[in-house]
Amino acid sequence: MKQFSILALLAVFAAGLQANPAPSPAPSASSASPAPVLAPIPPADLASIQAALPAKATAVPKHPRKVLLFWRTEGFVHASIPYGVEALKQLGQKTGAYTSVSSADMAMFDPETLKQFDAVVFINSTQLKFENPVYRKALLDFVASGKGVVGIHAASDNFPTWPEGQALMGGVFHGHPWHAEDIVAVKLDDPAHPINKGFNNQGFRLQEEIYQITGPYGREKQHELLSLDMSKKENQRSDKDLVRTDGDFPISWVKKEGAGRVFYTSLGHNPDIYFVPQILQHYLDGIQYALGDLRVDDRPTAVLKIQPTAVLAPDGSNETLQTDAKVREQVKASGEASLKDLPKYNYGDSTEALFNVLEAIRKGTPDTRSEFGARLAALLQDPSTTAAARQTICRWLGWMGGGQAVPVLAKIAESASNAPNDDAGYAIRALATIPVKAADKSLIDLLASGSEDRQLAVMSAIRIRGTAAALPQLAKIAATKSPALSAAAFQTMASFRSAASLNAILNVEVQAGNSALQNAAVINAASGLLARGSVLSGEAEKRLAVISGSDASYAQRLSALRVLLSAHLPVGDKNAVTLLKNEDYRLRDGAAKALAELATPEQLEAISWNGSTDAFAVLLRSLTQRADPSFLPLFKGALGNTDENVRLAAIAAIAASGDPKGLDLLLPLLSDPAAPVAGAARNAILEMKGSGINERLLILESSSTPALAGDLLSLLAARQEHKAIDQAIQAFNSGDPALQSAGYKALSLLATGGDLSKCLPLLNKIKGSDSDDFQKVLVRVAILDPHPFDAAHQIATSFDQAGEEGKGILVRVLARFEVKEAIAKLTQILASPDPELRKQVIRALASERNTSSLTLLPLAALGQNETEKILALQGYIDTIRELPGFNDDQKVALYKIAWKFAIRNEEKEEIRSALSQFGGNAAARDFLKETDPKAQTAPQLPAGNATPTHAN
To answer: What is the pTM of this model?
Structure first.
């Protein structure tokens, strides 16, 4: 066959080759552990869910959507989980917004499994640790890629050890001052927002547990939709119940996360939330936003130039979204009918009567609550009421009772003057939470007498209520001999966090052996007072100074010292210095840590650390947590310390500061690589974070001595600062051997797509063992170049100007390309008169085994040089065998082409052996039969001189 006809055949065949993509593996069912079973939902409740479902989706899905409903709990288990899962499942089914899969199996977050979904909905999942880093990355990548996450109620109580997960959700649960039985007033922060459309531009009331949100939450980070209407009295709570001081208690929000979206709402604790049409509409619209089908304004609320005008909850209304007046009357009638059975209740009996009465209270008006409260109080006094019923009534009165219940509860609590029975304990706990002043007086009266157990229970109730009027009585009890009573009295007084309570604690004349209890109370009360922004009295200062310098326990001494340092009192500095030199390492280290956390730079610089090197090192290591650049002068002084541990700790603290000025302190330490701290300084520079670090290193590198410039280049390269590539090239061209080496190493680490034009001019300067490394650099920058055709053209053009060693490098680079510019240049080189250059092309193509190898190796096999023919054909056969993506028919056709170039029996046998692997292919069977040596009539030629006897 003529050469041009064979090449034409190859060109036509190669043009038709298409790699067959491998199918994506299905998720392994065996990798998922069996999920727990959801509790069944009563038929009546299922009907209530179905009746509340919206008729259709707000937005038409852009394509079929699939949602993961994830309800795993590693903490509190909400009884409403089955309701939420069922409601959201039916929500997607009825509206066509999505299909869903529900699971509690962490294996769903395997990347291959997770990618099938468009959004993940965390339904009352709690305390998920997400310890598997693969799962963590999969979820973050899932959202960042453009998909969605939805959080329902306890979804903000997840990821306790994973800050990125908390930031993803947008906030962290911090208690619920508004309990499940409470009716709360809710305002629309953005009434016109599409996700709020179900509320018809009206604030509302709801019976629901509402979370207090802290952590990464902020209106500068997310777009607020709903929050508590704090102008309404039913939402007010005491300061001791709240950690937020800004009055902002969010309920629902949306936020962008990379290319993805997050919707969260804390609504979802009570099962009947899922019976409310407005709430299900809110869920649906939030989920459609997370899926990317509903476009909404998700800019953070704080950045909006025009702030939405919130719509508050209506005044004077007791209506909730869960019930209307008719339903409430029905519930009230059922509760009244069950009151007659309540007094006979015993533990283990049916709870139907209890449920009916409780529903009447929960869903009733204030008048209904007052009416039922009076009737329950009467049942408490009825001798025929069982103990189980009395205890149940006490629990209910604790959260809903009014003034009429207080005398009854107080009488029950007082009835056991020597040792409280169960009823007395329940009554005292009820008095702790009834929101009327009469309860305070009753508890103070109960405190004056009774058994020790009862007094302890009453003090616990007083602590809960914050009854400061009990201070005189508590002071008397604190002075008693009983350690248990004294400790409880001191703890209760300290919990008030007031100047009056601290003064009362200081004035107690304690019995022998109880001074440690008083010390603890002084420390706690003073700490609480400072936390509220108040100042300490002189007497408190003196007592704390005595405690920190006394023979008290080391824990109390250090706690007292921390309070003094928090108040920035001079005696605190003085006592700290004394403790730094104490023989007890716990006191030394504790004082150092306290100073590191609480002292100012000026305070620390004024301390003489002579003889306290161990404590100094502890302090410096502790200061890494503050990451405060204002301590740099202290760190600078520590670098001159003769103790190596101090110097190492100072280096770590400088790195943690993140201040570019810290580089000026660390760089001189690199001058002696053998010095013990040189390696620590280098690692510290590598780990430094903060803006401006790399920019400072670049400036310093450009103005440093060759030796230091080489070190800085090495650091910049290790920090992956791409801007240093120009300086690396300058160093490579500098003429200084050490700097050249550093420049070349930096170039090897930094060069990437777009740098080809900077790297090619260096080609002829690469010598010896560096050529392999430089080839890898060129391959990387060429493959990553955003314009591969231009890159191949640049390399082909540079080939003619390259020296012998450079040509060898470029040949290997061109062989990696599978574009026509590279193939054209390699074809030209194969026609070169230089046999060594031709062999380099053949070896490179045989090594790469890509589609360029399939195209060009047959051309080399047509050459005149027998060695080149053998090398080319062997490379061609190896390429056919190992190149992925071709089906059997395609590979058989390629082997038949290889046969045409086989000049030795060895290659022919190798081809026949390869074809024998395709036993089920008709073309392979026919070819093997046709080329069977036993069927040949002509005598066999010696190996190496065989010629094809057939043209197939």
So the answer is: 0.54
